[in-house]
From TrEMBL:
Segments of this protein annotated with the region Disordered: 466-503, 575-604, 1073-1121
GO terms assigned for molecular function: cysteine-type endopeptidase activity; nucleotide binding
Lineage of producing organism: Eukaryota, Metazoa, Chordata, Cephalochordata, Leptocardii
Designated gene of the protein: LOC109462096
Keyword Repeat appears in the UniProt entry: yes
Name of the protein in its database record: Malignant fibrous histiocytoma-amplified sequence 1 homolog
């Protein structure tokens, strides 16, 4: 096969007539106006694709006596050219997209040979009579036309096996359609059928039936008698019930019921023992039948968009295996009902939050001393009735605690925002302080969550009119704020943003009128809820009403195995018992005497041994413990961090206790912080130094931190948690008394308040030196910016930089011997976070490698804030050098072959320019074999320089292999050979392989998202092998549609259980239509057993503008700890041998089998690069080559067998 597609106005030389054995020629999208004469000199041509050309076909075309397939898609044809009517062997004619084309009667002359006719999207209002005369047709595609009826003559097509009638305007079908008993594939999707006749039962051979989006309310019983069905698509209808007869369809492999109004499923669905995929998303299901767990062949189950309580959504999110375990445990231990609602109380300092919570808890007025106000977070459990338990989070209002608040904001909580009515004034500043900031925070972090506004201290505002005015003002401002959110969401839906946006995503739901709480003012610095029970009853009633509102909290009530409920209760009791060494046999709570001196040490976490012991008390075996731990982790009852070595074997069963530890380190009063008796052994001078170190430099010594923590609390565990949350990083300082020793310190950027030190100006002068250039990347956060974002970002980049100096809103450091300046700057209503380095223009590629990984850290951090609006830019280097106050910001994107060497500076009316090397990101940021790792470490940190790789299996290896396509000519012959070699790779690397074959583009997206949502905590890595056709814009599904590689990678960005672990992606697909040659002439060829193919992108495909590859979106960069290996470079094809498989997989398997025991990953991939590059495909006088490409943001070395690292670095 010779593929020359998308080469505009290409000239085909006469010498091509020597290709006497050429059987397939693809000239799609070449903008031809006449057929090159040499094409008529290819007598053995069987396949000719002229799609996307405005070409006229000469009569001499009928000389191609062997032509069997002719594709004329989107050729703007008015009629079928006469020459086509005289092709004696023509079996397939594709006329897709030729609007208004006329089919002449002469087409009937092809009756004996014509098997496939594709007329999709030709705007036909009636089916031309000649179509029904082609009685040997086996495939007829009439989709996307304006057909309101079908002629009765359609019944003459008795041999048709594939009939496509999707997205027409059909309301009914003639009886003759149901008599086409040879039909195997019938697509009626997107029509207005509403009902189906009983005659559908005559299609006894149909295997694929698509009835999606047909507005069907019911189905005739005869549908369930089509027992040969393998795929049934009923999605997008209005079905309310599914009959038990569905169990008859025992051959079904794929059943799609998504987007219906189903509230239950029949138990008989468990009889579909061959089903591999079951789509149930966006129905109205509340429960699943236990029989779903018996579908042993089920590989993919999609349930999102339902409000499931049995099993709970948190179980469903973990996949079919977790659902099976849930039902198994439910059957073994009976059912129990759990109803918990998380209530989060927010507001400014001294708004009355703690008094409200304590009064609700005690049922009587409660004084709150100012010195007793909440530090960080306090959590209380309330049970105002026997049905619902409220877990109330009381958040400290001081801004020093905002950094830790965000970790406890979850979408399923009920938020109460308390506003001090006495302090509130009807001004923009007051609104933003008391209300606007908090609503922006919630909307950015948990869009769609439920929040209510509560006035407090009503007695401080005694005038009724004043209260009314303030209430009206706050309601008006809230309405304006919500309108702004919705406007921004609509705007973002039409733009490419930093992350993939969901246009239908809800903003914050603000419910109820503004409540009022009467608070009596007592002596200075005290307040309490009124002794009258009126306000207390009002708030309790309000909480119960909202909690029981099914629209607000549809998943409040969950059905759980009784053993799970008992385990959860024992875990909670364990929170008040003594340490594991002293725990009693029952695990029950132990009463302690009030005085602090007599209390036993609090247990802040459990080991897995503790959990197994508690599990036995609840009736859970060690094997059935993981599902309940995963569930409790999902709902927030416990916390686990299995990806952090110091924490992987610990279960934090009491989140309040965990926060209690942070409370002593994040205190708004640093004087009180250092007044604890536990520091009494230090001198006053030392304490003063400690306090100034923290306030001025954000530094705290490990020894001091240990004293601030409760007794017997390991500070290493606390610091590991703090570093995980992005709250601090470790630094080492020389001991003043002994320079040979070092003191371990931790820097908490939140405490920094000073500006950039003046001495740094010598390292980074204001004006860029003449011989240097500045490469600056910028993230523009539009509108609301989360508090503490920059501080957490500065912590996250610590492993990537060295010799750093920090101040309030900046960091100066070194990376790969280049200076790096990271700054945060407010600009009007926006926030600019910039990452810059300087060097010579010739070093531009290295400079990109310095700054870009730091930007990816920021992007990963922003994934935690789904509604924050942001975009990525490259600051114009010319504007920077000219010292312009408002430099131009280029959109961050990859460089393409169309880009010039220089880029004009728009900031000066395009009269100046800068090098494109400083504007467009290199396609290969850090390729294998460049001689240095992405991150240079100090030798003293060498022991931490390798990824943990000890789990068995090492991780999941998802293999997606497309070999059979809907268009048979696109089948990847020989592609199945790769599966055997991939099996060798997985066995060698101890990977658990999951194979998915022949997926459409949508299925690829769904499968990858499904796998990314799993819990990978027990694994050390993730690997994806994706094998299919590809183009410059992505890889292809079996339906010919494109999927962006970057979107696939992005689906693993938010997987918390893969954070910090290597994620490897191997993409075996073409990345364009050009073969790589050893000489400058010739074209892509197919000969012997080797072929290279590339597929056409859709007409609407946007130019490739990826994060690191031409498959990506322009502002969707991938996360850290990621490696992508492409089979070929941008714009080129890859090669496949039909006897042995693709070149990349062949060589990759050989290298891994030989070297994985002893070599690091980069070393192996360098050998793969060289091995593939050495291969040659020869045809005639031409030689064809292939060069793989690797990009990565790995931060450490990767040995699949860690002993190799020890052997090489003794």
């Amino acid at each position: 096969m010779l593929v020359i597609r998308n080469n505009r106005n290409i000239i085909l030389p006469d010498e091509m007539s020597g290709l006497s054995h050429l059987t397939a020629l693809d000239l799609d999208g070449c903008m031809l106006h006449t057929l090159p004469p040499v094409v008529l000199k290819l007598p053995n041509l069987q396949y000719l694709d002229l799609s996307g050309n405005q070409v006229s076909l000469p009569d001499e075309l009928n000389g191609l006596n062997n032509l069997k397939v002719l594709r004329l898609r989107d050729c703007n044809l008015d009629t079928v050219p006469p020459a086509v009517l005289n092709l004696p062997q023509l079996e397939e004619l594709d006329l897709f997209g030729n609007s208004g084309i006329h089919l002449p009667d002469g087409l009937a002359g092809l009756t004996n040979c014509m098997r496939v006719l594709k007329l999709e999207g030709t705007d036909m209002t009636t089916v031309p009579p000649v179509v029904c005369k082609l009685t040997q047709l086996e495939w007829l595609d009439l989709s996307g036309n304006q057909l309101q009826t079908l002629p009765v003559e359609i019944g003459q097509l008795t041999n048709v096996k594939h009939l496509y009638l999707s997205n027409c305007k059909l309301h009914t079908l003639p009886p003759e359609v149901w008599r086409l008993t040879q039909l195997e594939w019938l697509d009626l999707s997107g029509n207005q059928l509403q009902t189906l006749p009983a005659e559908i039962g005559q299609l006894t051979n149909v295997k694929h039936l698509n009835l999606s989006n047909c507005k069907l309310h019911t189905l005739p019983p005869e549908v369930w008698r089509l027992t040969q069905l393998e795929r049934l698509d009923l999605s997008g209808n209005q079905l309310q019930t599914l009959p038990a007869e569905v169990g008859r369809l025992t051959q079904l492999e794929w059943l799609d019921l998504s987007c219906n109004q189903l509230q239950t499923l029949p138990a008989e669905i468990g009889q579909l023992t061959n089903v591999k995929r079951l789509d149930l998303f966006d129905c109205q299901l509340r429960t699943l039948p236990p029989e779903v767990g018996r579908l042993t062949q089920l590989e993919r189950l999609y349930l999102y968009g339902n409000q499931l309580t049995k099993p709970p959504a948190e179980v469903c999110d973990q996949g079919i295996a977790a659902i099976r375990q849930y039902f198994d445990e439910l059957e073994r231990s009976k059912e129990a009902v759990s109803a918990h609602l998380k209530v989060v109380v927010l507001g400014e300092t001294m708004a009355g939050k703690t008094s409200l919570v304590r009064t609700l808890n005690s049922g009587k007025s409660t004084l709150t001393e100012e010195e007793d106000r909440t530090h960080c977070v306090e959590i209380t459990q309330l049970a105002p009735d026997n049905n619902i338990t409220f877990k109330v989070y009381d958040f400290g209002g001081n801004k020093v605690y905002h950094l830790t608040h965000q970790f406890f904001l979850t979408p399923d909580a009920f938020y109460l925002l308390l506003v001090n009515i006495g302090e509130y004034t009807c001004s923009e500043q007051s609104y933003q302080k008391h209300v606007g900031f908090w609503l922006d925070t919630l909307n950015a972090r948990v869009p769609g969550a439920v929040v209510s506004i509560v006035w407090s201290k009503k007695d401080l505002c005694r005038k009724h009119q004043e209260r009314r005015d303030k209430t009206t003002h706050i309601q008006t401002k809230i309405s304006q704020q919500k309108d702004m959110w919705e406007k921004q969401t609509r705007k973002d839906a039409g733009q490419r943003d930093l992350r993939e946006k969901d246009p239908s995503k809800q903003t914050l739901r603000i419910v109820g009128d503004v409540l009022e709480l009467r608070v009596s003012v007592k002596p200075k610095s005290r307040f309490l809820v009124s002794k009258s029970p009126r306000s207390l009853k009002k708030i309790k009633r309000f909480l119960r009403e909202k909690a029981n509102d099914d629209e607000l909290f549809p998943r409040l009530i969950r059905t759980l195995p009784r053993t799970w409920v008992e385990f959860e209760q024992l875990i909670k009791h364990q929170a008040s018992t003594e340490t594991p060494e002293q725990a009693d046999e029952t695990g029950a709570s132990v009463e302690t005497s009030p005085p602090e001196e007599s209390q036993k040490p609090k247990q802040h976490w459990l080991t897995m041994t503790d959990c197994k012991r508690i599990g036995q008390l609840a009736g859970l075996s060690a094997e059935s413990l993981e599902p309940v731990l995963s569930y409790l982790q999902q709902v927030g009852t416990i916390l686990r961090y299995t990806d952090i070595p110091e924490l992987k074997d610990l279960v934090f069963h009491d989140p309040p206790a965990l926060i209690e530890l942070f409370k002593d380190l994040f205190h708004h009063d640093t004087s009180a912080l250092f007044s604890t008796p536990r520091l009494s052994h230090f001198t006053s001078a030392q304490l003063s130094t400690f306090q100034s170190d923290l306030c001025d430099c954000g530094l705290i010594q490990k020894e001091v931190m240990a004293c601030l923590l409760p007794p017997k609390v390991n500070p290493d565990i606390i610091t590991a948690l703090m570093q995980h949350f992005g709250l601090c990083f470790e630094v080492q300082a020389k001991d003043n008394t002994d320079p040979s020793k070092h003191t371990r310190q931790y820097k908490i950027p939140w405490y920094l308040h000073k500006q950039m030190p003046e001495e740094l100006m010598s390292i980074w002068p204001k004006n860029v030196p003449e011989e240097q250039e500045q490469l600056q990347l910028m993230c523009n956060i539009r509108g609301f910016c989360p508090r503490g974002l920059f501080q957490r970002f500065s912590v996250r980049i610590h492993p990537l930089v060295k010799d750093r100096v920090d101040w309030k809103d900046g960091v100066m450091a070194y990376r790969q011997d280049y200076p790096v300046l990271v700054c945060s700057k407010p600009v009007a209503d926006d926030t600019y976070i910039t990452i810059a380095t300087r060097g010579k223009l010739a070093q531009a590629d290295e400079m990109w490698g310095v700054v870009h990984p730091l930007l990816e850290v920021l992007v990963q951090l922003l994934q935690e804030w789904p509604s924050v609006r942001c975009s990525l830019h490259v600051t114009c280097a010319h504007c920077i050098k000219e010292g312009r106050d408002r430099p131009y910001q280029h959109v961050l994107r990859d460089r393409t072959t169309e880009d010039d060497r220089d880029v004009r500076c728009p900031g000066v009316k395009k009269t100046a320019s800068t090098s494109a090397d400083l504007v467009y990101r290199p396609a290969r940021l850090s390729a294998v074999g460049r001689g240095s790792s992405l991150t240079r470490r100090r030798p003293s940190q060498q022991e931490h320089d390798c990824y943990k790789m000890t789990s068995d299996p090492r991780g999941v290896a998802l293999i997606i292999s497309n070999t059979i396509f809907l268009e048979p000519e696109n089948n990847r012959q020989g592609g199945e050979k790769d599966l055997d070699r991939l099996g060798e790779i997985c066995d060698k690397l101890k990977l658990h392989q999951e194979i998915k074959e022949n997926l459409t583009a949508q299925e690829i997206e769904v499968v990858t998202k499904d796998v990314s949502k799993r819990d990978h905590s027990s694994y050390d890595c993730f690997v994806l092998f994706l094998l299919s056709h590809g183009t410059e814009t992505g890889v292809l599904g079996t339906d010919g549609q494109h999927v962006s590689v970057d979107s696939i990678i992005s689906s693993f960005q938010a997987c918390k259980s893969l954070v910090g672990k290597p994620k490897l992606f191997f993409i075996q697909a073409c990345r364009g239509g050009k073969p790589s040659r050893t000489s400058q002439t010739g074209t892509e060829a197919s000969y012997g057993s080797t072929e290279a193919t590339a597929s056409q992108p859709p007409p609407s495909a946007a130019p490739a503008t990826p994060a690191e590859s031409p498959d990506a979106g322009e502002t969707s960069p991938s996360d850290s700890d990621r490696l992508v290996m492409y089979a070929t470079v941008h714009g080129r094809v890859s090669w496949r041998d039909i006897n042995t498989g693709t070149w990349l997989i062949q060589v990759l398997a050989d290298v891994i089998n030989e070297h994985a025991d002893t070599k690091e990953l980069h070393d192996m991939l360098w050998r793969v690069n060289a091995g593939v590059a050495d291969l040659t495909a020869q045809y005639e006088t031409q030689e064809y080559k292939q060069q793989p490409e690797v990009t990565h943001t790995l931060r450490k070395r990767l040995y699949f067998f860690p002993q190799a690292a020890v052997d090489q670095n003794p």
